[in-house]
Amino acid sequence: MVDKVIRINNLRKYFKVLKRREGFWGTVKDLFSSDYFYVKAVDGISMEISEGEIVGFLGPNGAGKSTTIKIMTGVLEPDSGEIYINGVIPYKDRIRNAKNIGVVFGQRTQLWWSLPLIESFKILKEIYEIDEKTFKENLELFEEIIGIETLYKKPIRQMSLGQRVLCDILASFLHNPKVVFLDEPTIGLDILIKDKVRKLIKELNKMKKTTILLATHDMNDVEALCPRIIVIDKGKIIYDGLLEDLKERFKAYRKAKIRVGDDVDELKLVNLRSLLLGNFNDVISDCEIKASFLNISFKKQEINLLEILKFINNFVPVEDIHTEDIQTEEVIKLIYEESRK
Amino acid sequence: MGVKRLKYYVRIYFWFIAQDIKGRMQYRVDFFISIVGMLMTNLLGLLSIYVIFRSIPNILGWSYYEILFIYGFSLLSLSPLQLFFDNLWNLPYYLITGDFIKYYLKPLNIFFFYFAEVFDIKGLSQLITGIIILSYSWIKLNLEFNFLKLLLLIISILSGSLVMISLMVIGSTVAFWVLNVTPLLNFIFRLREYTKYPVDIFDPFFKFVFSFLIPIAFVSFYPSQIFLRHQSNKLLVFISPFVGIFLFIVAYKFWMKGTRRYKGTGV
Amino acid sequence: MKKYIYIAKGFLLERMVYRFSLFFNALEKYLYVLLIFFLWKAIYRSLGQESLSMDFKSTFTYLSLATAIFGLFQTWVDWDISQLMLSGDLSIILTKPLDFQVYMFFKRVSWVVLNLLTITLPILIILKFILKMPINLGINFIFFFLSVIISYLIYFNIDFIVGVTAFFTETIWGLSVTKDAVILFLSGGIVPIPLFPENLRRILEILPFKTIYHMPIEVLINRSFTIFDYLNSLIIQIFWLLVFLTLSRIYYKLTERFIRINGG
Fold this sequence. Notes:
The complex is a heterotrimer of chains A (about 350), B (about 270) and C (about 260). With about 350 residues, chain A is of the alpha/beta class. Chain A contains twelve helices and 13 strands. Chain A has helices at about 25-30, 65-70, 95-100, 115-125, 130-145, 160-175, 190-210, 220-225, 245-250, 265-280, 305-315, 330-340; strands at about 5-20, 35-50, 55-60, 80-85, 100-105, 180-185, 210-215, 230-235, 235-240, 255-260, 285-290, 295-300, 320-325. The longest helix of chain A has 18 residues, at about 190-210. The radius of gyration of chain A is 25 Å and the shape is globular. By secondary structure, chain B is mainly alpha-helical. Chain B has one domain. In chain B, helix 2 (about 30-55) runs parallel beside helix 6 (about 125-140) and helix 3 packs across helix 7 (about 145-175). Chain C has one domain (about 1-260). Chain C has eleven helices and no strands. The longest helix of chain C has about 35 residues, at about 225-260. The chains are: A alpha/beta (about 350), B mainly alpha (about 270), C mainly alpha (about 260). Chains in contact: A-B, B-C. Chains B and C meet through helix 2, strand 1 and helix 9 of B and helix 2 and helix 8 of C.
């Protein structure tokens, strides 16, 4: 048995949802009703994650991300399929599983509200039966990475959201778990703190080789932290692989927004578009006309922009140009679109 | 569960209590007011009994001191519920906000973790009031006091407390299905008014209801009979501990069933 | 004035949703009446040579009416206010052109109507028509009606004062529970005032709390009352109402100023 830290095979979880009726008598009738429909929250997903990986877990709301994480952390029981976290089945052995994992649900703190941070850490030390040496080492590490000692005496309720999130993340690593699940840790945070959080996660992963599953909507999180991403939609995995490969797959690397003159004839633009697609087929994947803009998508990282501009300028006056790397977000959007066809 | 595991839970429990007290101490005014509030209610109960007995000799043969005894006993058997299970009132809140999920994520039994989080120190004022009233009536009734009696007292108080705790835990568990159970909890909690009087005052039908259907007679009346009237209701008196333990097991299992039903979503 | 009525309507609908709570709230009161019945039956059965100044029927009626009226008044205004204060929603209400106290009154007055229908009226009907308890339904009923209204206003002001105190404490559990217990006890809700021993009874007669349950009940069931007694009763109630109204207004205004100066 190859020791993958997370091993999931054909996991399924359906929810029975009652077709609710209106009004008081409706509620009474509901008590005796057998009128259900099924929501396929998780519909046959499989994945394997090795030690030390940081994997981004993406998907629109309601796609099944939270449900999957809840199954992995032992909150929910799946209907069928196999799941092993560190060789332990979470729903069967919840307590044993809990010893090996750390969990952070963004915006929900698991620390003690009125207690100074250090007291929360102390209780965690007792709960996880962390030995003195490990405890001290980890605190020193935390102090080194983000200077947490300034917050030791502060109760959680007096902290800002950003500070709270940092503390929750540290707390999840305190007992040296093999896996840490982070569910939207950067949601609602300002840019500076987000950066801090990402640095923290990266550092902890580096130092402890902890496997991290990061569920997020924030593409910057993904770009900063996750070489590998798993994308889930409607309960199924629609992509599992490297982020880089994703761009390769859709041949989407860079974009250029070219502004032509306001008085340019639309027909001319349409013709130009065909010509561009025809002549630069190896570089250009798509060209969109929007008012007096040409939005060109390139399927290669290296392009001869000057050549293309000259070509365009022969037909219409180029007034302005703006280039950018394609956003991860757009690539992800492409996956969703593709899977829904 | 082995001895080691038990020791572990006991240690963690003391940590939880200490931290909860520390946390509450920050709100000194509330702390003080809550204790006063609790004292007030208990003393008014005492005063009511006093006022009634100024004009009457006994209630169905139960003397003033016997009624006081039952009253003091009930305060004691209601104390563990107040002290250790006060968090049950918050269950609807945790379920609705989704915060309840945090109880699944630590290597602790969920029932334990949930109830260990809150230690209601104002329950101590009820405990002390109960001890004073019970001791007073014990002396006035010229009851025997020795080590065996003390042991019996502790056992009977614990039995009674388990019954009330179980009823309330069962009530709160309904929250996993229905969410807003606070009215139900209030209702069950109010039943404790009934625990302060001898169950003989009721006609046979209600006597049955409060002995076997909603067994609040086992919270303080039957257990206290070990000391008051040795002759009557012998069987009912001695099964008190078993009723308490049985109900508690039922309540625990029901609660754990509720936690399995919870989907981890807020509303 | 109209806007307050709309407010009342809005919250009435909200309350209707809480049928579960209405049910158990009512059930709790009925069960308490049951307890009163058995307890006092047992007490009266145990009287040998002694006798009390009230017979069983009177005592039972008295205490049941106290429960019925308590059920009528219980709208948890204090909890509501404390929630508003602690959550900061109070500031939102303060920005509206409403008098906060009047706003709270109308907000909860609809609950009183629901309480009336689910608790008070049923108990009254059961007492009078099913159990045939000694309740007069003559001109005294009009005075009873007026008396209850004034009682409610007094109770509301006390509730309001307790609620506002939430600003200074995190939770009002202790205060709320104490308030209910004290009012109930001192107004004859646990033991009827006539049954108190002489020295204590005199104290209760001076305190304002008798105006809340004791007085309306006396108006309804005391056969020896004359018009003079009814009017006298109302005047005493009005007096205490003015006292508590003034207290609550002053207390509230002071607290409001305090909040404005020091922040929410």
